[in-house]
Amino acid sequence: MGKWRYGVILDAGSSGTRVYIYRWLNSARALQDADATALKSLPKLETKKRWTLKINPGISTFGERPTQVGPEHLQELLDHALDIVPQDQVSDTPIFLMATAGMRLLPEIQQSALLHEVCAYARANTKFSLPDCDLHIQVIPGETEGLYGWIAANYLLGGFDSPEEHAHGKNHHTYGFLDMGGASAQIAFAPNATEAEKHANDLKLLRMRTINGQASEYKVFTTTWLGFGVNQARQRYVDALMEATYTHDAKELLDPCLPSGLKTTLKGLEIDEGTKVGNEPILMGTGLFDECLRQTYPLLDKDAPCADQPCLLHGQHVPAIDFDVNHFVGVSEYWHTTHEVFEMAHKDQSYDFTAYQKMVKDFCSETWGDIEEGVADGKWGKKVSAKVAQEVCFKASWLINVLHDGIGIPRVGIEKSAHVPGYNGTKEVLSHAKSKGFLDPFQAVNKIDGTEVSWTLGKMVLYAAGQVPTSNDALAVGFGSNTGPYTANGLPADFQFAGSNSNPVPVGEEDNWSEAADELLEKAQGRKTPGLLLFMLLFLGLMYFFRKRDRRLRLMSKISAFRRSRRPGSPRKGGRSFFGGKLFGRTSGNYERVDDAEAAEFELGDVSEGSEDNEHSDSSEGSRVGRSSGLATPKLNVVNFDTGNGHYYEKGEVGLGLAGSGLPNAMDRSGLLIRTESRDRLGTPNLQMLGAGRRSRTGSPTRMKSPLTTPLEED
User: Which stretches does the entry tag as region Disordered (predicted)?
Assistant: First the structure.
């Protein structure tokens, strides 16, 4: 094993699936090279833009023909991953497929059949590490997705760094996370000390581990509002319009959330002059944004009974948010709706309620004809289509209501005025994040220092942390209920392991020589100049003659892989050559929720342009046109389903913890819990140190220095 470890994760969203590939130093090598700061840091993950690939449609479209999901959907994603991961690393590289939106709509039998087929196909056609299908191939609930997003955001912002460098006050140094897709919205944050003590049974205990093996714990609240994503909210809004104003005599419903002069069907299809609509009612836009705000407010369901105080939306319990210390980043729709349409004037600016509402109001007051001309002329940015422009007034009103009347983000004092001469919100927030912490109650982001804020990153950070050997018999890496009950091993009964499956392997001199060759070959892919190639030949020639026979063979295989490429689209089985995909890699994209639209990018750092294709991912329910909800109504209904092999699947959405419910814990399978012999081994970390197999699982976190995940240099 070389110095790098790799991980592959497939985000199976409602409209497509995106494969992400990450790598980090082998624990032994990281420990060997670490300075005093790095020792107290989480493993440093790396990625490249071209290591990501998105394909359409979503995996849920194979619900009635599961046997086709492999050759027609998975194979291209597996090929891409096998092009990137070195051939001799494949067997030690874990692969995960985690489904979010779309799959939740399918009947349990179809879900089970699809998941089984995915695992069987991956095992038959690759050598990726896939020891436990129930752990690696699953449908995750929104709460788990929110927790992974919280990990990713804090990892990138530095919230896991030394507390004194990110002190928000009241002994608080982490950041909150907001996510919104097409069907649901998630929130995850660590309450202040008073609220954490008061609502201890509502929190999740998260454990990770730093390079030096030290453990740390975080207590996080996370929940999801089902039916509160933009597409489901829009559907509820149209239903309310129908109920309030529709009559057989008057078939045109006045819609203040559509631009004036625009006519659409109830499903949002534009009606032109010659379009025949039959007897179906139509929506006629009036472009009255203030009225749109007023009519979308009731959708928050603020008056719903609250059985467990306090509540925010729909009677759903959330501990009180202290905005003095709880500073939130918002991704997906929080980013696209605040920045995408206003790319030209707003891209470099941080979110400011007053400035944003004025821009939206000005936009929505224009006639549809003028808006269409503006779209054609690129007035609002190159990524704004007529469909995006059609939807922005409703989406903006919904986002403003959710943020300020729903969650309670303050409307004033959020950010310095965007009109202050010389003020650049992007640079201001970056300076905060790298010094004393980003201090605004809310900021929409797409990337942080060039890395997309994706829940998949959070999952892989947790996995990588679980590979670090413990130095003090710390408990396993993962998360579970904060207040028990506990197992004999001292873990929460519903503890969901990180899934780490390999022990670190010492790196010796022979590995160092081979790694140097690997790095030269990798750099050569984008710098194929005669001078560099000549240097490489001389260097590799020396290595060849001074290495042992097995090392020579390994080196020759890599040189051969560097020279050849695979014909695009040809089938490949099993392992892949080291360099096949590195020379002919596919394009990549930015994080949202997998869909076909594109978005501008905002970083807590420099603003950069992303790929024109593979632009978004679908972390949960999707946030663009055509996505469907993972839940018909915004309620938490839990029904466990036994497939007959001990594997429980959820129906609808399930919370992170069901301790004491009397039901089998749904998160055992739709979360991270595994039921194998390795679970017992995980509860006894010492066995890992005794060489108890190569696929061990360990873990626990840190509050100390955490390096930012940064993309590898694009050559």
Answer: 603-631, 684-715
